C-alpha cells in the first residue's frame, strides 16, 4: 500500500529522506521537485495525456521516466488516476550498493554519485525501460520506503524550467552535500533579469 499523498507538494516533502531501491543499490532521496498537472505549465502533464506522458495519468505509485540531455530522469507519480502530477527525483545519497553505483557512475566522490536527476538514475540503473514500474508491488524490482525521521527542509525555485520558473516547488534536505547545484534556465533568466 502506498504512503504517498495525492498532492505533489505534500508528496515532495514526504519523499525527502525516503529510500528508493532498485536491486543492489538504494538511494536516500535528498532533493525533489513537484510538478502539478493543468495548473503547472512546467509539467509534462500540462497539456493533457499523450503517449509519452501516459504514466503520469495512470495510477499513483509508479515511476515516470523521460529523457533529457542524454540522461534518464525519474518521477514518482502520486496524483489520483487521470490527474497527471509527479515529483522529480533530483538527488540522493547512495546508502546501499556503493560499489555498484561507483561502477555505473565512474570515478566521482561518493556525495556526487546520485547528485542531479541523471546521476541519480544512473547510480540506480534506471533507464527509459523502467517507465511505469510499480514502486509498492512486492514483485517489482523497485521499492520505496519512507524515511526514519523528518528532516529539515528548504524550498526554492525549480531547476532549469523556463515556465513557472519562480515557483518554489523544489525541496531539499537543508545542508545535505548531495543536493545538486541550482541553475536557472536560460529562457527564465532572460525573463527575470532586471530592466
TrEMBL record:
Keyword annotations: DNA damage, DNA repair, Glycosidase, Hydrolase
Single GO MF descriptor: hydrolase activity, acting on glycosyl bonds
Source organism of the structure: Ammonicoccus fulvus
InterPro entries in the cross-refs: Formyl_transferase-like_C_sf, MPG, MPG_sf
Coiled coil (UniProt feature): none
Keyword Hydrolase assigned: yes
Record-stated family: Belongs to the DNA glycosylase MPG family.
PANTHER family associated with the record: DNA-3-METHYLADENINE GLYCOSYLASE
Listed EC numbers: 3.2.2.-
Gene3D superfamilies named in the record: Methylpurine-DNA glycosylase (MPG) (3.10.300.10)
Protein name (database record): Putative 3-methyladenine DNA glycosylase
Amino acid at each position: 500500500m502506498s504512503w504517498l499523498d495525492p498532492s505533489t507538494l505534500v508528496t515532495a516533502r514526504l519523499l525527502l529522506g525516503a529510500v528508493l531501491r532498485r536491486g543492489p543499490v538504494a538511494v536516500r532521496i535528498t532533493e525533489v521537485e513537484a510538478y502539478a498537472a493543468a495548473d503547472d505549465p512546467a509539467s509534462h502533464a500540462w497539456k493533457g495525456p499523450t503517449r509519452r506522458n501516459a504514466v503520469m495519468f495512470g495510477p499513483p505509485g509508479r515511476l515516470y521516466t523521460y529523457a533529457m540531455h542524454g540522461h534518464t530522469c525519474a518521477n514518482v507519480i502520486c496524483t489520483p488516476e487521470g490527474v497527471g502530477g509527479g515529483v522529480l527525483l533530483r538527488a540522493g545519497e547512495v546508502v546501499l550498493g556503493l560499489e555498484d553505483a561507483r561502477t555505473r557512475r565512474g570515478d566521482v566522490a561518493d556525495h556526487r554519485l546520485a547528485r542531479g536527476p541523471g546521476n541519480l538514475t544512473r547510480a540506480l540503473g534506471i533507464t527509459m525501460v523502467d517507465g511505469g514500474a510499480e514502486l509498492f508491488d512486492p514483485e517489482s524490482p523497485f521499492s520505496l520506503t519512507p524515511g526514519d525521521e523528518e528532516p529539515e527542509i528548504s524550498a526554492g525555485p525549480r531547476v532549469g524550467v523556463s515556465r513557472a520558473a519562480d515557483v518554489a516547488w523544489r525541496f531539499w534536505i537543508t545542508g545535505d552535500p548531495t543536493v545538486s547545484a541550482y541553475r536557472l534556465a536560460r529562457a527564465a533568466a532572460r525573463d527575470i533579469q532586471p530592466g
